[in-house]
Amino acid sequence: MWVYLSFMRRAQREQWFVEHSIGVREITGLTLTSPVPLRSPVAQRIVESGVLSARTGTTSLLEIEFDNKWRNEHVDFRPHLPFIFQL
To answer: What distance in Å separates the CA atoms of residue 39 and residue 35, rounded to the nearest whole number?
Structure first.
C-alpha cells in the first residue's frame, strides 16, 4: 500500500517528528529489492520521483537509510526480517 499526502509541506511534517531514541531523525533513502519488478503506475511514479529506488533480486529486502548515513553504520535484521538500516 502506498500513501502520499501531496497537500502536506515539509515544515508541517517536521514539527510532528523528533529524533528517535537511537539518534536518527529522518529517512533519507529507501531501496526495495524484489523478485518481481514493480509494475503499478503508483509504484512507477514513486520510483520516478526519487522517493524509492527499486531493483530486482532473488529475495525481498528493504534498505532504509537514515540521516544520509552520517554514522556510517548498518544494522542487518536478516534472516528474521527483510530489513537493513543504514545509519
So the answer is: 12
